[in-house]
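can u pls check wat happens w/ magnesium ion
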Amino acid sequence: MSLQNILKYKTVLLGEISVGKTSLISRLMYDKFDDSYQATIGIDHFIKTMYLGDTTIKLQLWDTAGQERFRSLIPTFIRNSRVAIVVYDITNRSSFTKVNSWVRDVRNECGEDIKVVIIGNKVDMDSSRKVWPEEGEELATKLNAIFMETSAKTGSNVQAMFKKIVMDLYEQKVPVKETSTHLNINYVTTSVGSSCAC
Amino acid sequence: MSTKLMKSNPLAMRLEAVKNLTVDNDTLEALKITPTTKPRQTVEHLLIQQHEIFLNSFEKVFVEMNEMEKSIKEMDADLSFIKSTLEQAKEKTTKVVDITNELKEASSDTLLKQSIIKEFLEIFTITKRTEINQEFFENLKRLQQINVHSQALLIGNQNIGMEILTNLNTVQEEQYEMLFKWTQLQCRTLKQEQPEISSEFTEAMRAFRFRPILFDACIDEISSIRQSALVRAFQNALSVGTQYSKPIEYYAHDPTRYVGDILAWIHQACIAEYEMLSSVFGIVGNSQRQAVELPQVFEQVEGYQTSREQVLSVLDKNTEGLAPMLNKRIDAMITVLLGSIQIYKIQNTIQFYHQTLSKILDPKSTLLTSLESLETQKGDLTRTTIEPSESLDPPPTVKETMSQIKEIFTSLEMNMVSSNESILADVKEQLLYPLITNCESPNDLTPLDQAIFKVNIYHYINNVLTLFGFCEELINEINTKTSHQLNTMLDKSGLLELIVKMKSSEKPYSLVPELSTSVISTKLAKLDNYLVNVTMDVSETLYRIKSLDIAKECVKKGCIQFVKEYSWLVSEILDPANKYEFPNSLIRRNVKEVETLLSLD
Ligand SMILES: Nc1nc2c(ncn2[C@@H]2O[C@H](COP(=O)(O)OP(=O)(O)OP(=O)(O)O)[C@@H](O)[C@H]2O)c(=O)[nH]1
Ligand SMILES: [Mg+2]
């Protein structure tokens, strides 16, 4: 293993309770999905290692809890991150309404230094959709964020979303190579799961 | 010619036949019949001639035969020579065959030996590597194997075994030394904040399992490097920050944020450190979410075990240096904040991280221990003195403290930490009770004013507590205190003094100077005066009770209490045992009248 070319990025996942933050991570890390809901307590920590050409990219993921009582912990993790993924549930209008204030919190802490990604999750439940993709798109443009719709359940767009984030970060860091768009990202996972349950 | 030949040789037999040839009479007659006159002579002559020829020929034959016999004899001799030769040869051949067989055996023996030797060499050839790579480690493993095999060899072939072992040890030591030096060099890369562990490094550490001294030396080296690396990193995080984040100390004016940031940094550092150590210890397959809850023994390297304790103790050592830094800062913050609400918010955060870090760190680790010591510091929040105001309003200190308590309880309601109990207890012990004690401490107020003052404070406290579901017990406590204050009427009326004295004296009371007939008489006369003005007096004095409900309650309860005590007093005065003279004349109002005066019906 070469010790050169290792890039590390801290990423924080934000969003209201039960929008699917933990599910997105578990889809990314283990390609698994669980229908039952287990609220995140405090903060969870994961490390996802990806290989981009000869560069190793480590995404340190902080999975925050949507529950109100843990709010006071979150700013610290926002501050330490390069990427903030704000998730809402497309079947839950109010989770979308809150995106604005999440992004505002992020910008308050980090200004424009942080890459913001807005994710409309649970697209597999299209029949109960309450938020249209156009609305998400529009909001993202307004907030200078990347927008995507995903489903942690079917896995749709999940890998693609993380891939896009990594590519963007990589291109920022290293001048764009001609081949960069053809680079294969291999997902190899190592992690230290830290369940900060109380 | 030998008889032997005559009998067996066909030629001899023919000759014999001819020799014995006889002409029978018929033939002779026939011959006589021959028309010629002298045929007989002719024939006889012919016959003689024939016989002569025959004889001559026979002689030749005989000679030949003799020759032949000679030859045959020679041949016979030759043959028996051949025969004996053959016999000799036969004997020799057997020997050759035997030898061949022996040789064959020897040859397969040799082949076997050869293959054994080949195998032996394959097993026991000691090789060195000069570069640290995958082959190096494979070779090192092989050397270790040779060691095991040589030990086995010692049983049968002590000399060879010893020789190999001696050689082997030298080479192994060389290789280990080389690896050790390499590892020491590699350790330098561990000076970074979050270093990466190469697979070679992991392999090296695995190899050192067979050299516990080297292993421990490496671990010590790693620990000391990591200790200072982490201290440096923490210092940077505190005072320098990163490209993307300001230093933590930049926010020192916001204690909650400051302490939260410090602990979050520590948390993160511990996780990264744990991840690094799992590479160092070669812990594989920790990709599961539950990885942090390590199995007791997760790897065995032929006899060497990596236990959770081992990793945790190294993790503890590596992070040890952070503890005093963190302690110093948070402690300073706590000292500054003693007596304020923020201390509770900070305690809450500390408690949260303490629980979180307990999942990663050894319970006895330096970090956890110092967090524990910080957790217990709540400080004395009640160094304030309470100055009653003219209005008998709850003073600002009370309002302030209660607003702190309110904040604490609000945060308790959305608490991050499961045990509210301890904080609730803390609040009682550290805030509420001292506050109440302070209220009850002596001041210049008249007893009644003091009572009203207390009631006002209790009322204020209760108003805050009723906002929270979990304060029932506290509320009851305060209520009890409130009602205790209500019997101040007794005091005001002057009866309290008498009752208290009676309850602490021996009967008969009339002999007690303070309870003499004349004293009782004067006091009761005064009481009458009080009772006449009581309604006015009550409303005048109790208007300063902030709660109308309480004021009413106060009057009501006070009156009931008053009547109760009064009737007890009356019964005592009337009791002959107390030897009051003309007791009935002392009592100007009977109980019923008092009740009426207090308009209790
Ligand atoms: N149908 C569907 N359900 C989903 C999807 N993602 C998550 N869920 C479900 O939504 C529930 C909540 O998911 P979580 O991932 O635990 O939500 P969270 O955002 O981590 O919640 P908190 O930890 O409380 O903040 C679970 O029951 C999931 O099974 C999705 O893409 N489709
Ligand atoms: Mg979650």
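Chain B touches chain A at residues 189, 194, 196, 198-199, 244-245, 256-257, 260-261, 264-265, 267-268, 271, 274-275, 278, 286-292, 345, 349, 352, 355-356, 359-360, 414-418 (CB under 8 Å).
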